[in-house]
Amino acid sequence: MEISSAVTMGLAAGTYMFLFCIISYYINNLLFRKDVGEIGMFISFGKPLYRYHGNKGIRINFGYIPLGSYINFKTEELPVPVAIDDVEIAYNKKRIQMLNLVVLGVVVLVLFTTTYILGYDPVKIFKDILSVEYHLITQKLLYKDLAAVVSEHYEKYGKYFFLCFVLVVQFIISLVLVFVLSLWDYLGLVLAVLLLIAYFKYNLAFFIFPVTFYIDALLALVVSGFIYFLLLRFFIK
């Protein structure tokens, strides 16, 4: 995988996170009409790396873990008197679950509609990507043989379209996982244990690209993510 592919993936990931913030914000305003307290590009535990205040006093954060973007709701809407900690968690958790489902539906609709307009079969591409990923993880397809498979898809669908499709598929999978894991507090721990067992039992491979690929993609993601973070002030009204 050449540098341009890694940079494309990083830029596309940053763009997706940026759009996720905007789509989530306006879907919330349209369907749930709950006040948003903060919007974040990248995740942080505690204080973010940088923050500014946008429209309606919304805090816009830039975190230090580039694994996603998010929105949080204000807590002033909670009924009182209550035990704030417990009710806040339950109250926001339900809304986040519904919001994730709606965003997932929008992402799938846009992806499949765009693909159909371009004259491709999105279901077939989706299945092909999942099949390749499965064979890579189980090492039935080795990295040295991956270039030929990827080149074939580049020729069939176009390089940048296919890379963006691959990335959006990963985010669809992540949104599904976020929703499923939110149904039970300990489900994430159970899944992590199962993956760890499967890793050693079946000799799985989760990181198959050279280190330089991940570095290039990460740099592109961080740079584009910071630019998008600054641009959010113009899109959150």
* Distinct helical segment count: 7
Note the run of SSEs as H and E: HEEEEHHHHHH
**Within the largest sheet, what's the order of strands?**
2-3-1-4
Cα distance spanning the termini: 40 Å
Strand content: 5-15%
Counting copies of identical and different chains, the oligomeric state is single chain
- Main beta sheet: 4 strands, mixed
* Strand elements, count: 4
Radius of gyration: 19 Å
What's a concise summary of this model?
The chain has 237 residues and is of the alpha+beta class. The protein is built from seven helices and four strands.
Write the layout of secondary structure elements.
Layout: H1 3-32, E1 36-43, E2 50-53, E3 59-62, E4 65-73, H2 84-117, H3 122-137, H4 143-157, H5 159-181, H6 187-201, H7 211-231
Helix pairs in contact: 1-2, 1-5, 1-7, 2-5, 4-5
Walk me through the structure.
The structure is a single chain. With about 240 residues, this protein is an alpha+beta fold. It is built from seven helices and four strands. The radius of gyration is 19 Å and the shape is globular.
Could you name the key traits of this structure?
237 residues; alpha+beta; four-stranded mixed β-sheet; globular
